[in-house]
Design brief:
single chain, 536 residues, alpha+beta, Phosphorylase Kinase, domain 1, Transferase(Phosphotransferase), domain 1, six-stranded mixed beta sheet, Prot_kinase_dom, Kinase-like_dom_sf
Length: 536
């Protein structure tokens, strides 16, 4: 296969091939007989979902774009031929990533040559030196300029990147740094997509449920996000001020406008070009610094960049004493309340029998809504059982004094008893996946409301995100607005948390929760940075 490619080829005509990568949508193979091309074969579960007409339009664009065709193939691994097997479209051919978009890097397992994903650059200087990467501010500006030029060309051709993230964007360290897009079949051409649009966690637009995905406005937002994170050395920040130490005022202003939640207010990437050119002229290159001799300081970047999007959820906070109910039905909160009531009553009875202590009596008079922790309530149990019998058990007969307020008697159960998880429209409420998601989100919601979220990822980043979400509460409920299956096979759940109003921040908050298997069910493994959202 050394001649120019026809628009469609048979799988059998590709000859021998070697697998070089596996992702969430399929597998990539190198062609032994023609190293210029690689073949992406869609996973069997996606073959029927592929919009063949749109995929053919992608292929024709590269052939018919005239003077822009060479530029398109120079900046992206663009589909160049549809591949069929027995008449069924199974994938497509695309150019192999040029060698200049690979980089030799020091990884924890040792030195390796890898795809130069921009995710490596979104870390601080100590991390970069430890990986053997010399990246100065001039290089960052030049990479942004080239990316803005590439986006301008794509938009002129009717192409929107959509899932613009550091996993789908490569960089070169040539004399003039360049960008290179991969996963191009996930882009959108004149409003049409080959497969359903998706977003990489941490790179979602402010309100993905209200804003159309893969438009020039979403590309503008994510370009601004790239600029901020590239200069802040931070993979999660959305604050333009985080980059102002190294980015000049005009570019910080452009970044702030790009991150505007109102799409029409965001400047197109081409409107950055003049400011980037001026910034490049004012920023001389710097010589490489000596690599650090000691370990990386705590909290100064991770030992690896964000995992590639092939496991998008991609990214938790345990604190002492986890409340982890497994809500199997509408009556689970009653059982939690009954168990908590027994424990609380035991503490009250003990307190009433001790006439020398005033602390328990003071606790019982605190107003409702108070958050309790091990410091203020050392005698209250912080752990509730995690497994309950099926059905709704009858509440035990307890000698509860009628003069006590139920909510004051149950300060720990209240956040779970008076909150609920609902399922948004369009989702299959009866599927096992949805039921598992409801159970996991219910457990997480209960934990968030008492500042004890149970997460599998115990990193400082996840701890901070969970704490941020807890600070926005308490929440009276949560609505699951979307469920998808990650490449790992585990569910990812888009959730809108609805504050209770009293003592909470205004408005609702959205996050994407990644679920992990936990015994017979699922629990939340990690969450994306919370963002304001429209209340359901």
């Amino acid at each position: 296969m050394t001649s120019p490619l026809p628009p469609e080829v048979s799988l059998s005509a590709l000859g021998p091939r070697n697998r070089i990568g596996v992702g969430g949508q399929g597998t990539v193979y190198a062609l032994t007989e023609d190293p210029r091309w690689v073949y992406k074969e869609y996973a069997t579960r996606l073959v029927d979902d592929v919009d063949v007409t749109t995929l053919n339009r992608f292929v024709r664009l590269a052939a018919d774009a005239g003077p822009d065709a060479d530029a398109l193939l120079g900046l992206a691994a663009w589909p160049t031929a549809v591949v069929r097997k027995e008449g069924v479209v199974r994938g497509f051919l695309m150019p192999r990533v040029p060698d200049r978009f690979r980089v030799r890097i020091q990884l924890p397992r040792g030195p390796d040559t890898v795809l130069a994903q921009v995710q490596y650059l979104l870390n601080n200087d100590d991390y970069l030196r430890g990986r053997g990467l010399h990246v100065d501010d001039r290089m960052r500006l030049e990479l942004l300029r080239d990316t803005a030029e590439a986006l301008t060309l794509l938009h002129r051709l009717g192409v929107c990147v959509g899932d613009l993230s550091p996993n789908n964007l490569l960089f070169s360290l040539d004399a003039r740094p360049r960008c290179y897009f991969i996963d191009c079949d996930a882009m959108r051409l004149d409003g049409d997509s080959v497969l359903a649009q998706a977003e990489t966690p941490e790179w979602h637009v402010p309100d993905a449920d209200a804003e159309e995905l893969a438009t020039p406005a979403t590309d503008a937002f994510k370009f601004g996000l790239l600029a901020v994170r590239l200069f802040a050395g931070d993979q999660q920040t959305r604050d333009p001020a985080a980059a102002q130490r190294r980015l000049d005022r005009q570019l910080v202003t452009l970044a702030g406008r790009s991150l505007d939640p109102i799409p029409d207010r965001r400047p197109a990437p081409e409107h950055w070009l003049d400011a980037l050119e001026r910034g490049i002229r004012r920023t001389p290159p710097t010589a490489p610094a000596a690599p650090p001799t000691g370990p990386e300081p705590p909290g100064q970047g991770s030992t690896r960049p964000n995992a590639p999007r092939r496991d998008p959820v991609r990214r938790n906070v345990p604190r002492p004493g986890v409340v982890n109910p497994q809500p199997a039905g509408r009556g689970w909160g009653l059982l939690v309340a009954a168990i908590a009531a027994i424990a609380v009553m035991a503490g009250l009875i003990s307190a009433n029998s001790d006439t020398t202590s005033t602390t328990p009596r003071a606790r019982s008079s605190l107003p409702t809504g108070v958050r309790w922790d091990a410091t203020t309530v050392p005698s209250y149990p912080r752990v509730l059982p995690t497994r309950y019998p099926a059905g709704v058990p009858a509440a035990p007969v307890l000698p509860l004094p009628t003069r006590f307020d139920l909510e004051k008697l149950l300060p720990l159960a209240r956040p779970c008893l008076f909150s609920d998880v609902t399922v948004g429209r369009g989702l299959n409420r009866t599927s096992a996946r949805t039921k598992a998601a409801v159970a996991a989100v219910g457990s997480f919601l209960c934990g968030i409301n008492i500042d004890s979220p149970r997460l599998a990822d115990r990193s400082s980043t996840q701890t901070a995100r969970a704490a941020t979400l807890a600070d926005r509460g308490p929440f009276r409920g949560a609505t699951i607005i979307g469920i998808r299956t990650a490449a790992s096979g585990s569910p990812q759940v888009n959730v809108v948390f609805v504050p209770s109003g009293e003592g909470s921040s205004s408005g609702c908050w959205r996050s994407r929760l990644s679920l992990v298997k936990d015994g017979a069910g699922y629990r939340v493994g990690s969450l994306a940075a919370p963002a304001r959202a429209s209340c359901p």
